[in-house]
Amino acid sequence: MSSSSRKVPPLPEVVLTEAEGRARVAKATRRSFLAAAAAAGGLAMGWRWLTASPMEDGIRAPLRSMLRFNERIARASFSRKRLTPTFPRESALTPRANGKAGLEDEEFNPATWRLVVEGLSGGRQSLGIAELQSLPKTEMVAEFKCIEGWSTVVQWGGVRFADFATRFPPTTPSGKPFDLADRPDDVPPHVSIETPGGGYYVGLDSDSALHPQTLLAWEMNGEPLSEEHGAPLRLVIPVKYGIKSIKRIGRIAWQDQRPRDYWAERGYDWYAGL
Ligand SMILES: Nc1nc2c(c(=O)[nH]1)N[C@H]1C(S)=C(S)[C@@H](COP(=O)(O)O)O[C@H]1N2
Ligand SMILES: [Mo]
Question: Which of the four, 138, 149, 195, 244, has the lowest number of CB atoms within 10 Å?
Answer without folding.
Answer: 149
